[in-house]
Please model this.
Amino acid sequence: MTTAAAPSPTTDELLDRVDAALDQLGQLVAAEGRDDLEARVDGARARLDRPTTVVCVVGEFKQGKSSLVNALVEADVCPVDDDLATSAITLVRHGDAGRAVVRRRVDGDAIAENIDLADVQRFVSEAGNPSNEQRVDRVDVLVPARLLSEGMAIADTPGTGGIRAGHGAATLAFLPFADGLIFVSDATSELTQPELDFLAEARSRCPNVMLALTKIDMAAHWRRVADLDRAHLVRMGLDIPLVAVSSLLHRAGAEGGIDALVAALRERIVIPARTGSAQRIAGEVESLVASLVGSLAQRRAVLDDSASIDELEARVNEAVQRIEHLRGPGARWSITLGDRMGDLSNDASFAFRGDLRELTRTHEESIEALKTSEQWEQQAEQLQRDLAGVVTRLFEVIETGRANIRAELVEQLAAEDASLGGADGLRLRELDVGSLWRGKPLDTARAAGKAVSTGLTGLRGAQSGIMMFGMAGQFLPAATATLLVSNPVLLAAGAVFGGYQLVEDRKRKVAMRRQTARTQLRQFVDDVQFQVSNDLGTLVRSIQREFRDEFGALLVELQRSWAESLQQAKQGLTRGTEERAGEIARLDTLSGELRSVHHTVAQCVGQLAEQVPA
Amino acid sequence: MSIDAAYHQLLDVCARIESTLPGTPHATRAAAISARLSGPLRVAIAGRLKAGKSTLLNALVGERLAATDAGECTQIVTVYGRGDVYDTRGFGRDGAPLPVGLRRVGEGDDGSWEIDLKGANSSSFDRIEIDWPASVLQQLTLVDTPGLGSLNEAISRRSLDFLLAASDRESDTSGADAVIYLMRHLHALDAEFLGAFLDRRVVGASPVNSVAVLARPDEIAACRDDAMVSADRIARRMEADPVVSALVGSVIPVAGLLAETAATLREREVAALREMAHCSDDELAVLLRSVDDLCDVSRTSLTVETRRELLDRFGLFGLRLAIRAIRSDPSMTSSDLARWLLAHSGLARLRNVITTTFLPRARTLKSHTAVIELDALARAFETLHPVLAADVRRQLERLQVEGVDLAALTVAHLVASGTVALPPAHRAEAERLLLAPEGPMAMVGGVVGEPELLEAIERWRTLGADPRGGPLAVQVCDTIARVYELALAEAG
Ligand SMILES: Nc1nc2c(ncn2[C@@H]2O[C@H](COP(=O)(O)OP(=O)(O)OP(=O)(O)O)[C@@H](O)[C@H]2O)c(=O)[nH]1
Ligand SMILES: Nc1nc2c(ncn2[C@@H]2O[C@H](COP(=O)(O)OP(=O)(O)OP(=O)(O)O)[C@@H](O)[C@H]2O)c(=O)[nH]1
Ligand SMILES: [Mg+2]
Ligand SMILES: [Mg+2]
Model:
């Protein structure tokens, strides 16, 4: 307990201080002519100010999901209609000029095309793309908006009737990768049992689930419905906040509760993500400062004692040569990378095929045991969830593998590094180069300490999660209709009128329908296997490429650090004594400033860690 | 055999069971079936929770008899029938009477009605029957059912019990002859769900005897002024969906709340509306912008309570509509306004479907229900009196074969629901014939000449002989051929 302590700074203030320190660091390295390091600091700053987070907006159809997304981003980006509207997933992200990218399948191949904002509705709405016949995985819409400028991406999803089938199942599968979920239910009636079941399942996969009660401008009894809904949530033991909103009023410039929702999103998702970024950036700042200070010390040493230049030159040459080797294809890490990615790809697809076989087997058995048509509906729903689960597991394997491979590469490079420049060299281990769009490392900082039961939380925000979401969102809903139609037990009501001679006929028909159902099941699973395996190959190749690029760039940076410290030391030698003294003083000041930046960052991050609720 | 003959035979079957098994529950059940046969057509109002079923029932009856609420409300199947004075009867799960009362809430002509369960738990009731002297109930018995998809499964179960086939039910509650199915929205996928739902549960629900209502249409289109136009477009889209058209004859948007309020409009409410209509354009724009603005303490001379009541009774859309009407024609009387609101509610179209498609075939529909119920009853006393059971069954089978109207109805279900798929030309012909409200005989009678009839008989016989069709298709073709044969016999 401290007495009479100054009011402790708020999270926002601490984050601002970290940001200011990074700003200063950027200027310092820029003044030293290190544009490569400046770019890295800028990158870190971007991750601090705009950590990429993903929030899904889901709910039964026509509850006002797209209108809510539009209200949150203050722009009419998602098509809204009285009748069916959204037919494909739309990911709304920040971008200065409004533009959009559609990702869809043409003859089984995934393609991406740039489109005009005005054309978005041709791909994501029922009117333009009924039942997603154009096989759109997702459309990325980039628009400028305050909430988005803090890094949040908002996914608008198609409404579903059976909320846990189709897109519901896809969303549930994606949740381990997402940062938050806004469940939308309008205020004209209370939550139904399927909605509550979905919320319970969602809450067990994602800590940040919120309920948006929409259309309160027109629902005469919205307060009553809000109370009923809260009571249902309490009864089910669900800790989910309810926010009452009117997207309509908000868009008309009146208070519609949207500001409160935005505040909640910031507080629960953006701020923790920024804090997490700050914590990871602190390590990066430490290594960057250490390396710079080390190189300044070498320059200073040469200024002090010109004889030491030869020793330095020898060390630098050796280092540059070794790094040259590391950058080449024969380097150990590069071979390891190739091997490990190959293994990962094989292991993952082997496990995936095994899971699918097992799934097919259990479901075929259930088809034989079906007694009533309700059971088939339940089974079709279960099938979609099982399948979504299998696909999630696959991506989980990939993500875990990716993290392990990365750790191994860092370890190998660090070992090489140690023999290079000791503690002065860049310590790769500390680097945080991740971002959603460039293969984010496992984000343990944010998942830590949160009570989530699936053990999948480590994957939050991974790029492949989004990829899986689009994919599952494309094939699961298409399956629903086919599966329901193939109902092996359902015989039309007419049979009841037919009399007793029809019993035999009925039996024959049921057997026939069972056969059809089994065929449909296999067909569906085969399609999924084909599509997912295809995408798996693409994903593994892209991970490999990312690693090569990431570590390659770091090695270039390292090489440059060495080369420049030698060059500058040599330049220093051409100066007169007085100039040298001035330069030594400048280098000392610079070192001090760099250390102070590091100190500030470390201190703020320490305080941030204290503020994170246990 | 004409439908009237079949109808009388069914009454005879009931009487025989009653006299052969006196004093047994079977006799009571037979008496109930008989009473239903001679009573009005029984129409159930079904749908998901909070679809507005009770509100629509009130609108049809013209009195706020059924309780309505924003929270889950109807918990007991309630049968509203004709009576010179009002009367209420409760029945327990075992069929034994349970005391219930009906009491008025609110003063004067101001109120609605509330059922008094006399302290009993709602779960102990099988159903409640209410007699009420309303003219619609002369022709129709209306049944309010608890919402499907309730959080409390037992409550939805009661509706299903009621709507299920007699053969699948344990209690002797009678099912319905026709269904008004309320839905609030329909996605392509939901059509599948609905299809599966109606198909297996409401026996005999097909375009012949069921109609869908697009409920709470004002809310679907965000309470905009053009809401009903938009709802109409959606209803037409649903109607065109093959899954929906296999289940219901039409989809009609009906703003139940508006219709209920129009049917029970009070002077006091009209006065309050007039006062509100006096506000300036700007004031009104703010006042009617949202429900919170409307109930804001600082607005208009009306009390907050009055404004809240108006909102409950009209909804935001209804209020905007009513105010607009009064402002455009200040000389409007209360009954003018009521008529105007009613016209906007879409209720007339629903009434029209009832009178043009349900009522003309009432006797056929009722007989049809009775056949199913008697069949189940015969199975119930099979061990007690096997001879009677076999006899009743035989008679029922014969009725279904010989009673051409009855047979045609069965076949109409099969064709209209798509259970039996016919070649397109045949299907169109079959539907024209079978779905004619006056019955198939009226449709063929006198319209075509002898050669055409002979040709038609031949055509349907040939189609029926095709072994690929299966027994149901044979039944369809035979029945239609027989309709033509009878027409030929009558012509000759
Ligand atoms: N009055 C009012 N209407 C709203 C509000 N939000 C949405 N709506 C209306 O509700 C309807 C559906 O809105 P959408 O945003 O398309 O709903 P959705 O959930 O995205 O629909 P699907 O994608 O088809 O499932 C439209 O008629 C909107 O105008 C609101 O806040 N107030
Ligand atoms: N805006 C609007 N509200 C309606 C309409 N019909 C019913 N409501 C409101 O919807 C709510 C539910 O109406 P009910 O008639 O009780 O619905 P229900 O289907 O009988 O409900 P349960 O018996 O609980 O399943 C009430 O608050 C009604 O005022 C309508 O056409 N428009
Ligand atoms: Mg939408
Ligand atoms: Mg009700």
